């Protein structure tokens, strides 16, 4: 039986590769997997403020969606590059104290 992709954002020929230490992400690559995450009001305001400042100060138009993708790229790349000294490990450890 052939799997149905009707109603899916996933491309028919998915080439999934696990994240590697040397891998960098490309914001121009279309996103096809949708997820929902919860944010505080302050976090959403900060994201909106950053979006507006990027446009006003630097002339860069970016969506909040792409800002969040860029943030995920930074966290993942830093984690693979720095490991135990990465931002995410240090912040997660401080939260668990």
Describe this structure in words.
It is a single chain. The chain is mainly α. The protein has a domain at 41-95. Helices cover 47% and strands 0% of the residues. The protein contains three helices and no strands. The chain has helices spanning 41-58, 64-82, 87-95. The model has no long low-confidence stretch (mean pLDDT 85).
Total helical elements: 3
Q: From the helix content, strand content and strand pairing, which structural class follows?
A: mainly alpha
Helix content: 40-55%
**Structural Rg:** 17 Å
Ends distance? 50 Å
User: What integer is the average pLDDT?
Assistant: 85
- Could you list the spans in which at least 5 consecutive residues all have pLDDT below 50? none
Portion in strands: under 5%
* Number of beta strands: 0
The succession of helices and strands, N to C, reads: HHH
Note the overall shape. Answer: globular
Largest sheet: none
